[in-house]
Amino acid sequence: MHFDKVSFASIGATLPTEVWSSQQLEQFLRPLYERLKLPEGRLALMSGIHERRVWDAGTLPSEPSIQSGLAAIEASGIAPAEIGCLIHASVCRDFLEPATASRVHHGLGLGEDCWVYDVSNACLGLLNGVVQIANLIQAGAIRAGIVLGTENSRPLLEQTIAHLNGDTSLTRKSVKPAFASLTIGSGSCAFLLSHRDLAPEGSQLKFAVAKARTQFHDLCRSDQDSAGAGMAPLMETDSERLLIEGVATGAAAFKSFQAAGGWASDSIDRSVCHQVGGKHRALMLEAMGLPVDRDVATFGWLGNTGSVALPLSVAAGAHWNQIQAGERVGMFGIGSGINSVMLGCEWGTTPVAGNLPESEPVFLAE
């Protein structure tokens, strides 16, 4: 898909204030660690994740999503009446019914003629939403649209810790499928897209590609729906196979990305990959022939924040001036299933609003 009328008008980002370090998580898991004689420092060493953030207990995803959406709207200068579509696209949502987008739409004060719905596609939800809104703008159906979401890792982390400490039958081998759950963090992000004449200095979305290798749909899955305050989710992940097949899917998608945009690897000024961890990042960049020093990463201090991981990294990169006007930016998404969505952008002066830190945390320097 190609676009010549679509801009990223603004980005809104909201982060929790409560931080759980990997060292803290290992303290929470002391019964398991002592029982299996696991070495301290294992979590950070294996993943490259030093911290992740969690929302206050009882936080509904719609609440931070409204904050992120309001920040994006204010930063853009676009009137709420111009926004013709709202998509809430995170894995986490308030309830099974109604759509979380409904409460967010009300909280943002958008108009009655706005298209309002949820999209769910694991870690790719927000990127899928970007493409849907971009197509509506390109077709002339709407003038602007907003895609946003909030991931809440607290229930998953708490349930995983309780399960690992309580199941005395676990071995070093059988505990592996739960490891990925301990890398998950919380966060919220909103992308406001518009017709270029509403944001002429904004970053231009140029093209998008998708790749589906759904024969690997069972490598990462939750055993129950995590919507609603009463749910206690657990996840089971074949991390090793998911890494291999995810990188292979990303490499295949990148070939389509290059063909669609005519972009050689050395012409991409900045890359932003899905934020899984250090090993995934290294293998993805190697497979695409892209250098680490041009890549934007946030997993070290945010963990894997699911559908908002890549958007938050784009926000942080722009906020820290790692992504600058005039640069070609590749957004390389991977989601369990396994699917990939990749976007090619020419960056402008898209404003970023919210509570991101003013500078990159020092332990991200590798």
UniProtKB/TrEMBL annotation:
<dbReference type="GO" id="GO:0044550">
    <property type="term" value="P:secondary metabolite biosynthetic process"/>
</dbReference>
<dbReference type="InterPro" id="IPR013747">
    <property type="entry name" value="ACP_syn_III_C"/>
</dbReference>
<dbReference type="GO" id="GO:0033818">
    <property type="term" value="F:beta-ketoacyl-acyl-carrier-protein synthase III activity"/>
</dbReference>
<dbReference type="Pfam" id="PF00108">
    <property type="entry name" value="Thiolase_N"/>
</dbReference>
<dbReference type="InterPro" id="IPR016039">
    <property type="entry name" value="Thiolase-like"/>
</dbReference>
<keyword id="KW-0012">Acyltransferase</keyword>
<dbReference type="InterPro" id="IPR020616">
    <property type="entry name" value="Thiolase_N"/>
</dbReference>
<feature type="domain" description="Beta-ketoacyl-[acyl-carrier-protein] synthase III C-terminal">
    <location>
        <begin position="261"/>
        <end position="339"/>
    </location>
</feature>
<protein>
    <submittedName>
        <fullName>3-oxoacyl-[acyl-carrier-protein] synthase 3</fullName>
        <ecNumber>2.3.1.180</ecNumber>
    </submittedName>
</protein>
<feature type="domain" description="Thiolase N-terminal">
    <location>
        <begin position="71"/>
        <end position="152"/>
    </location>
</feature>
<keyword id="KW-0808">Transferase</keyword>
<dbReference type="Pfam" id="PF08541">
    <property type="entry name" value="ACP_syn_III_C"/>
</dbReference>
